[in-house]
Amino acid sequence: MSPLSSSSIGSSPSVASGGDRAELSAAAKQFEAIFLRQMLAAARKAGFGDDLLGNGGTETFRQMQDEHFADLAAGTGAFGMAERIEAQLAQFLPPESGSRG
């Protein structure tokens, strides 16, 4: 679902489905994982003795290891960024159909 799809532009807000919140949650977790990957990549660039054991295979393995860690951390909510992003953006969703009214 695109928040700016052609059917939603210029129309009144519709009732949000539970899928909207699930999509928002998934997107927030993906954003957190991307952010963590970038953070880990920047930390790896600092070196910290990688020249001693570094080669192409080790570098590839560490990159894969960092990506897996980022996915796990985002999925479990270990850093809490996805939860905060979701809470911040959820206020822009229309009310759910099961709410008071």
Description:
- By secondary structure, the protein is an all-alpha fold.
- It has one domain.
- The protein contains three helices and no strands.
- It has helices spanning 18-45, 56-76, 81-90.
- The radius of gyration is 19 Å and the shape is elongated.
- Residues 1-15 have low confidence and may be disordered.
Fraction in beta strands: under 5%
What is the alpha-carbon Rg in Å?
19 Å
Element string (H = helix, E = strand): HHH
Termini separation: 25 Å
Q: What is the SS-derived class?
A: mainly alpha
Organism: Novosphingobium marinum
Protein name: Flagellar protein FlgJ
Region (Disordered): 1-22
Biased composition (Low complexity): 1-19
Task: Walk me through the topology.
Elements: H1 18-45, H2 56-76, H3 81-90
Helix pairs in contact: 1-2, 1-3
List keywords for this structure.
cell projection; disordered N terminus; flagellum; 101 residues; Flagellar_prot_FlgJ_N
Give a nutshell description of this structure.
The chain is an all-alpha fold and 101 residues long. The chain has helices at residues 18-45, 56-76, 81-90.
